[in-house]
């Protein structure tokens, strides 16, 4: 088997296939990424780190940046990022390049499975049609399916072997081949009659989450206005065994799923002159959430007769979610940039992130934040096992996670 793209989806996928007894060729265009994998310096769940340690020297695991290596595989799994640009327009650069490479090196009998979240029709446009143009009979000579990834970085409760998969191929034979591959790493496979239905399934999953997160953030602000604590209310509502699923407020949404994936649907609909106002409003709210956090910082400091300009502000946790060192689309970056533009002296402390770049400057993580004086501490991400007891002695704490207890000077967004 070949896995094209060894990022936060591709590498765990390759390791899961290895653990299931398969020979795996891992292909990535970045030599730096390949070197990091060889050294074990990658952000993975502990169980996947164990797998990497076990298989790093395994002759059945080949790492290469040579795309021609996919010709040796009976199955090719494409796992490349599908971000959006700063205008929230899908960036198809990596996806188009990976699909073109796989098509160029395809051989008869291969199953080619795309897992990257994207717009409806991608599998057909970037794989089926180019393969047909090469002279292949798709569904007879080669087989093409879409199976959206369901990797939850940093969450051991949602490991691949506990998470069902969805797949849709060009015909029944393709679906059976895809199911046979996916069953090696997933407890169940739900088959759909087309790749388009599988593509829309993933968009529905993450758009559902986006809409509900936007609602949770708005609801939390409504609770603050009424003097109520939102988490206890959400937990009370969650006791209802039907019709409710808990979502929780926070400083914003990061990663390459929730803040990105629904824009693939909106982009495609706009091209058809079709609106989706509820999704559009939710994504606008998500995009604007970091600015609302910044405004809350301004308001809280103003209540203490302190200007943002010159204020010493510490951001605790800058990764986009607990338990990972991933900064992709992290709201913390936008929050820090905007506070710095306001003239604040902004620093951060994160045990998993040693440094980050804002503009031209590289900022190191503050390793002993309790030893410094801060006008305000903004709690953005709380990693498992991190002791934040020192916050009780801080003059002003803005808890954007809504989860801190025993902090007398705490405010919420």
Short description:
By secondary structure, the protein is α/β, with parallel strands linked by helices. It is 37% helix and 15% strand. The radius of gyration is 23 Å and the shape is globular.
Description:
- The chain is α/β, with parallel strands linked by helices.
- The protein folds into 3 domains: 2-193, NAD(P)-binding Rossmann-like Domain (Rossmann fold), CATH 3.40.50; 203-282, N-(1-d-carboxylethyl)-l-norvaline Dehydrogenase, domain 2 (Orthogonal Bundle), CATH 1.10.1040.10; 290-412, 3-Layer(aba) Sandwich (Rossmann fold), CATH 3.40.50.720.
- Helix content is 37%, strand content 15%.
- The chain has 11 helices and 15 strands.
- The protein has an 8-stranded mixed β-sheet, sandwiched between helices. Strands 10-9-13-14-15 form a 5-stranded parallel β-sheet, covered by helices on one side.
- It holds the Pfam family UDPG_MGDP_dh_C.
- InterPro entries: 6-PGluconate_DH-like_C_sf, NAD(P)-bd_dom_sf, UDP-Glc/GDP-Man, UDP-Glc/GDP-Man_DH_C, UDP-Glc/GDP-Man_DH_C_sf, UDP-Glc/GDP-Man_DH_dimer, UDP-Glc/GDP-Man_DH_N, UDP_ManNAc/GlcNAc_DH.
- Residues 314-406 form the UDP-glucose/GDP-mannose dehydrogenase C-terminal domain.
- One of its GO terms (biological process) is polysaccharide biosynthetic process.
Task: Give the SSE layout.
Blueprint: E1 2-4, H1 10-19, E2 24-27, H2 31-39, H3 46-55, E3 61-64, E4 75-78, H4 93-104, E5 111-114, H5 122-133, E6 143-146, E7 165-169, H6 172-182, E8 189-192, H7 195-225, H8 230-237, H9 261-271, H10 277-303, E9 312-316, H11 331-341, E10 345-349, E11 355-358, E12 361-364, E13 376-379, E14 397-399, E15 410-412
Parallel strand pairs: 1-2, 1-4, 2-3, 4-5, 5-6, 7-8, 9-10, 9-13, 13-14, 14-15
Antiparallel strand pairs: 6-7, 11-12
Helix pairs in contact: 1-3, 4-5, 7-9, 7-10, 10-11
């Amino acid at each position: 088997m070949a896995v094209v793209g060894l990022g936060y989806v591709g590498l765990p996928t390759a390791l899961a296939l290895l653990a299931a007894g398969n020979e795996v060729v891992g292909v990535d265009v970045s030599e730096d990424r390949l070197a990091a994998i060889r050294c074990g310096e990658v952000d993975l769940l502990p169980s996947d780190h164990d797998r990497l340690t076990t298989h790093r020297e395994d002759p059945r695991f080949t790492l290469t940046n040579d795309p021609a290596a996919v010709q040796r595989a009976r199955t090719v799994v494409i796992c490349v990022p599908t971000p959006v640009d700063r205008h929230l327009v899908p960036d198809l650069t990596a996806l188009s390049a990976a699909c073109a490479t796989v098509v160029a090196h395809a051989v008869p009998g291969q199953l080619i499975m795309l897992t990257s979240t994207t717009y409806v029709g991608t599998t057909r446009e970037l794989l089926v049609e180019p393969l047909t143009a090469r002279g292949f009979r798709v569904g007879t000579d080669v087989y093409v399916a879409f199976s959206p990834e369901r990797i939850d970085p940093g969450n051991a409760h949602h490991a691949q072997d506990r998470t069902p998969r969805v797949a849709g191929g060009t015909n029944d034979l393709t679906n059976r081949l895809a199911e046979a591959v996916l069953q090696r790493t997933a407890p169940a496979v739900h088959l759909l009659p087309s790749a388009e239905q599988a593509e829309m399934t993933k968009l529905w999953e993450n758009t559902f989450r986006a809409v509900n997160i936007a609602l949770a953030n708005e609801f939390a602000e409504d609770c603050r206005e009424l003097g109520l604590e939102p988490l206890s209310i959400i937990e009370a509502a969650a006791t209802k065994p039907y019709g409710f699923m808990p979502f929780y407020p926070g400083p914003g949404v990061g990663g390459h799923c929730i803040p990105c994936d629904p824009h693939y649907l909106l982009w495609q609909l706009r091209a058809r002159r079709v609106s989706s106002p509820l999704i559009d409003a939710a994504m606008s709210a998500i995009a604007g959430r970091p600015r609302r956090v910044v405004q809350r910082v301004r308001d809280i400091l103003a209540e203490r007769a302190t200007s943002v300009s010159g204020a010493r502000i510490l951001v605790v946790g800058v990764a986009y979610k607990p338990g990972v060192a991933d900064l992709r689309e992290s709201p913390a970056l936008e929050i820090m940039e905007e506070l710095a533009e306001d003239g604040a002296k902004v620093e951060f402390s994160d045990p998993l992130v040693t440094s980050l770049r804002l503009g031209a400057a590289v900022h190191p993580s503050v390793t002993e934040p309790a030893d410094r004086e801060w006008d305000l501490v903004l709690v953005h991400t709380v990693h498992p096992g991190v002791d934040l007891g020192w916050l009780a002695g801080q003059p002003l704490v803005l808890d954007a996670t809504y989860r801190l207890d025993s902090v007398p000077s705490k405010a919420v967004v």
